[in-house]
Amino acid sequence: MHADTTLHFDILSGIAGDMSLAILHGLGLNLSEVADIISEMTGKEIKIEPVTVSISGIESFRLKITIPHEHAHRRLGDIKELISKAKLPAEAAKDALGIFSIVAEAEGIVHGKPADEVHFHEVGAIDSILDIVGFAYGKHKLGIKNISSSKPVLGSGFVKCAHGKVPVPAPATLKILEGCEVIRTDEPNELTTPTGAAILKYYIKDFSTAYTGKVLNSAYSTGTMTLKTMPNILRGTLIESAIKNDPVTVIETNIDDSTGEMIGELFSKLNGECIDVFCTSAIGKKNRPSTQVSVLCQRAKVEKIAEILFANSSTAGIRYYNTDRIIMQREFITVKVKGFDVVVKKLTYKGVTKFSPEWDECVSCAKKTGATPMEIYDNAKALAIKTEL
Question: Taking the domain 329-388, which CATH number applies?
């Protein structure tokens, strides 16, 4: 696989977990590997058969999945245990757990329970474990670095679930997609499922039809429903990009009447909502020393950041502009230092490669071993370089 690849979903009529996994099959994923992983995880014999069908004259893949019947209603803790024991690459395990956590949080809010107490019902069933774990594994296996997508498409009407009939989009789907721009249609079917929505929410920050790069491959998938107003089809396009352009928004404001303590508290409010925040000393009007607060965020976060700035500082106005940034491709590898795992960030851009151990993990490892954090950092970096040679 190329050094920097993006899988772009064209959501023409919705997205579900099995349709997402079928796209990866169309791009080269061996589904027997996925079946073996899920069979070992669950103790049930799983079979996945890709079936080729024609949707509006386009060859598309539909997954025929054979799963033994079960009555298990798993909680998030059960899912965590299954994933921790599975033979999955660390990146795939992290992604699978992240996607499940999004679903658990949404289901918890809908049902008025903590995420850890939610019984997953359909999402905890083997087919959903297969969809989520299989997709996370397939992304890693195919070497896909990024995922982008057009806006999620939603249907209407009602769908039957474990709790009875619920409106479409399902409450969990709608909760997962909060903060996302969507397209609602009159199609009387569930188009985007909770699993499909969670995959999108986990990997994607901003939805757009636009992409730039070399088209490497494409695939189409479909579900089991025949829709009334549109073809049931999902397209995945594999893109190679020499430069990773990341669209962001810069928000700025100048403050000349706040203390250092106030600015520090403002930073603590902003840190969880933005990509970066920093300040610059300046001289403002009336020759007053002032602080320029600059916030780097995803474009969908502009209103949220504005609310935080107005509520937690004395500013009465902000300015913002959209721009692009070039970022190095990031992936995470794990090395053992003095018997303990340390995660190292691998950064690549064209022919440039750098390694950066996660500092918090170095500190944690140092406390356990009696070494200094710098010793752990240097050892982890050396081991990461050696591993990649």
Answer: 3.10.20.300
Residue of 65, 32, 4, 58 lying closest to 218 (CA atoms): 58
Kindly indicate whether the domain formed by 246-326 is annotated with CATH number 3.30.450.40: no
3-class DSSP assignment, residue 33:
helix
CA 63 – CA 383 distance, rounded (Å): 41
Q: d(Cα 308, Cα 224) in Å, to the nearest integer?
A: 45
- Determine the Cα–Cα distance for residues 235 and 233; give it in Å rounded to an integer: 7
Pairing of strands 47-55, 58-66: antiparallel
In the chain, domain spans: 5-240, 246-326, 329-388
**Inter-CA distances, 51 with 29, 127, 221, Å:** 14, 17, 10
pTM here is 0.68
User: Chunked in runs of 10, what are the mean pLDDT values of the chain (389 residues)?
Assistant: 80 96 97 95 92 96 88 81 91 94 90 76 72 96 93 93 84 94 95 96 90 92 94 96 75 92 92 92 89 93 94 94 86 89 88 91 94 95 85
Burial class (CB in 10 A: 0-12, 13-18, 19+), 356: middle
Q: How far is CA 82 from the centre of its chain?
A: 20
Q: Where are the alpha helices (DSSP H) in the chain?
A: 17-26, 31-42, 76-85, 90-111, 126-141, 171-176, 194-203, 260-270, 302-312, 359-369, 373-388
d(CA 115, CA 221): 31
Q: Assess whether the region 246-326 and the region 329-388 belong to the same CATH fold.
A: no
